[in-house]
């Protein structure tokens, strides 16, 4: 009886840990997803490419990275209060043109929530 109780407790702990990892995302999987973004963006340094650097993205007001020529729509979104956090990035990554109408970003978005969760986990490591 004790063995079954211990086995059940260990199983519960393992399931809880997997659920936490699923919610937080997988950084390695996010790095793979980021390859779609890396054509235009960089995350590990603060240099702009075709798109703005995503280094220290979390907490940044939209349209404000220095030395990047944002669209008027992205600047207006920032002026209106758009700040990049998990929720706003998730919406934007699903459909950039819906979240910020008039953005010049041509990426159509990510449709898989798991990919977005993993990408956010990857990007978070560059916002610390």
Assembly state: single chain
Query: What is the fold named in CATH at topology level?
Result: Cytochrome Bc1 Complex, Chain D, domain 2
Our count of helices gives 6
Radius of gyration: 18 Å
**What is the highest CATH level, the class?**
Mainly Alpha
The geometry reads as globular
CATH superfamily: Cytochrome c-like domain
The succession of helices and strands, N to C, reads HHHHHH
Number of domains: 1
Q: Which parts are unreliable, with pLDDT below 50 for 5 consecutive residues or more?
A: 5-22
Share of β-strand residues: under 5%
Helix proportion range: 40-55%
CATH architecture: Orthogonal Bundle
- End-to-end separation in angstroms reads 47 Å
- Overall SS class: mainly alpha
GO molecular function, one term: metal ion binding
Keywords: Electron transport, Heme, Iron, Metal-binding, Signal, Transport
Pfam family, one: Cytochrom_C
Domain Cytochrome c: 25-127
Summarize the structure.
The chain has 6 helices and no strands. With 128 residues, the protein is an all-alpha fold. Helix 2 (27-34) packs across helix 6 (113-124) and helix 4 (86-94) crosses helix 6 (113-124).
């Amino acid at each position: 009886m004790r063995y079954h109780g211990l086995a059940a407790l260990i199983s519960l702990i393992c399931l809880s840990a997997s659920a936490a990892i699923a919610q937080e995302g997988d950084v390695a999987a996010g790095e793979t997803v980021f390859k779609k973004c890396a054509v235009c963006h960089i995350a590990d340094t603060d240099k702009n490419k075709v798109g703005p650097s995503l280094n220290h993205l979390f907490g940044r007001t939209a349209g404000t990275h220095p030395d990047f020529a944002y669209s008027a729509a992205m600047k207006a979104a920032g002026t209106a209060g758009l700040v990049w956090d998990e929720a706003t990035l998730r919406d934007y990554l699903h459909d950039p043109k819906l979240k910020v109408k008039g953005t010049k970003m041509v990426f159509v978005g990510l449709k898989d929530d798991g990919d977005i969760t993993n990408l956010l986990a990857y990007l978070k490591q560059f916002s610390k």
